[in-house]
Amino acid sequence: MSTSRPLYGGAITASVPANYVDASDLRQVPDTQEVFLAPDSDLSYIVEVLELVKDEQSEHDLDKAARFHFSSLAHDNSALSSTVSSVSTPSAAPKPSGPGLPIVQGPTVLTGTQTVSKFNRPASEADTVLIQLALWRIPQRDADVTLCVNFPVRMGETGEERSADEARRVFEEAVRSFEIRDFGLFAGGEAA
């Protein structure tokens, strides 16, 4: 069962399964991230506030921006390989969030896999990780917000294939419930 959780002191809310553990209770988490971990699997759920990406002509292209964030994640994960299987951009024009509030573009949703070798295991024992990434963009605040659910669908050590049904359900519910409530969270751009 999922519940709406306040993120960044309530500036953002999103649905997170009630039994997921706040990673900041276990380890240091950057101020720009909210990280939750499934208690019974290797699923991780990460929301991150980032500077609006302008590299590789992604400033005005949500597809390219989502791909940039996916590539950045692959770099951070020291992925041996990464593949984008689909990107879906919003079909409707962005709507203002409310009177006097910045426009939020998105979500753009990307699904892909990355091959990641953890715990100093050889490449032959690398995990195949399903990456589901949603991107919201707030151009007036020079901000991108990503929500990412990561789940190993093939364990390299054993070769075990695992169902990603829970990861997909958690991601879809999080994207559907995602809401920015306080634009003061975003320091860049013009003030509203």
TrEMBL record:
Record keywords: Protein transport, Transport
Low complexity bias spans: 83-95
Segments of this protein annotated with the region Disordered: 83-105
UniProt GO molecular function: guanyl-nucleotide exchange factor activity; small GTPase binding
GO biological process, one term: protein import into nucleus
GO cellular component: nucleus
Superkingdom of origin organism: Eukaryota
Family to which the UniProt record says this protein belongs: Belongs to the MOG1 family.
Protein name as it appears in the record: Mog1p/PsbP-like protein
Protein species of origin: Rhodotorula paludigena
